[in-house]
Amino acid sequence: MQIFLADSTAISGAGISPEKKVFKINSGQYAGRIVILMQLSPTQVKLTYADPPYNSWVTPINILNDCADSPFDAVMDSENNIYLVYTLSADSKLACRKLGYFQGLWAVGDACIIYESDSNVNPSIEIQPPERLWVSWTRITSGGYYLNAKHSNDWGENWGNGPSSYGYEIASGVSSAWSRLQTMGSYMYIFYTIDGSRLSTRRKHVFIELWEDEEDIATGAGFDHNFDTAITADNRIGIVFDNGTMRYREFDGTRWSSIIEIDGDGGDFPQLRYFNNNPYIVYLSDFIGSQRRILCRRRPGGSFMDPEELAPSNRVFDKVFCYNSTYASYQDITAQAADDVAGDMYFPGTTALLKM
After folding, report:
1. Which among 80, 114, 236, 239 could bridge 232 via Cys, Cβ 3.0 to 4.6 Å?
2. Which residues are paired to 87 by β-bridges?
3. Is the peptide bond before 130 cis (omega within 30 degrees of 0)?
4. Which comes out higher in pLDDT, residue 51 or 342?
């Protein structure tokens, strides 16, 4: 079932692949409640939620009026509080707000400034247990693109050495930079693309001050924000990424697996999740013209299955027939309906094209 939630006039209303927008309450009176954050206008972020079976969603509730028309990220803690990191519209400062949870609802706290200089975009936020928040983001200054990271030990009220410090510098480029934080074990990992030429990673142990050296996951051209990561229950990190061809790798804490091709035609906005330690990859695939299909590839065993339609109602037609009531006959025009040739769907007994 597909349910319409809202229209958006923002550039990235539903966000980008590395950033998180959907959360679920796992215990208590409201167990099963799903909450979604959406940027519905260039300056507004709203929240909606629903309970099982998710047939009815509340009218989106406004939680931010001061954000830039730029992607934001959020994370939920074990108490169901949400921490949202975003760019301020007035001056491009990087800010964090806590959405405090109480009896199934969320109250918006004050904005805390993470970094107050330069232009700051595309943040990623993650919790490093038990109670440390990390943020990475792209800092643009003097024509350079810098990836920085800072942490907070008091749930977002104070960050590093204060708002004048940009914290750790992870990497730099001249044209683009995107990042994604991911916690596994005692390490905080940062995955990132720089200048479209590589997808790389660094990590930092919770008790060690410095970040380890950079390691490339893939190199080439065309890398951007179309990548996502996830953690398995048996402590592996998976990453899916697209730079014309969609691919997948896994890291067991020591070494990386070989690269697996997911879709030779590529795809946009990939999302990776694990169920019973098996990867599920959902992505948008170009179809005909401006049409796109939502596909899913999963690996329930040793190898990935063929792509499947995530929403069966949006599948390509199995068969398309024309019926002639005069002669009580059918004509199979499945091939014409499936190709990208315009104006070729007509009934052979007439010269009329099908209108729809």
Report:
1. 236
2. 94
3. yes
4. 51
At 346, the pLDDT band (50, 70, 90 cuts) reads: confident
- Would you state the torsion angle of the CA atoms of residues 330, 332, 338, 341, taken in this order, to the nearest 10 degrees? -90
Residue with tokens 């330690």: 277
The secondary structure of the chain in percent helix, strand, coil, rounded to multiples of 5, reads 0, 50, 50
Output Rg (C-alpha) for the chain, integer angstroms: 23
DSSP character at residue 256: B
- Could you tell me the CA-to-CA distances from 251 to 234, 258, 259 in Å, in that order? 11, 10, 11
Query: How are beta strands 321-324 and 308-309 bridged, if at all?
Result: unpaired
Q: What strands, in cross-sheet order, belong to the sheet with 177-184?
A: 177-184, 187-194, 198-205, 215-219
Alpha-carbon distance 111 to 95, whole Å? Answer: 6
Average predicted confidence (pLDDT) for the chain: 94
- In the structure encoding, which two tokens stand for residue 54, read together? 């998710």
Given a cut of 70, whether residue 325 has pLDDT beyond it is: yes
pLDDT at 355: 67
User: 100-111 as b/e, with b when 16 or more CB fall inside 10 Å?
Assistant: ebeeeebebbeb
Q: How far apart are the first and last CA of the chain?
A: 24
97-104 — which CB contacts under 8 Å span 24+ positions? 97/63, 97/64, 97/156, 98/155, 98/156, 99/47, 99/63, 103/29, 103/30, 104/25, 104/29, 104/30, 104/33
Q: Does the structure show a pLDDT above 90 at 317?
A: no
Q: Which of 45-49, 64-68, 287-291 shows the lowest mean pLDDT across its residues?
A: 287-291
Q: H or E segment at 337?
A: helix 334-338
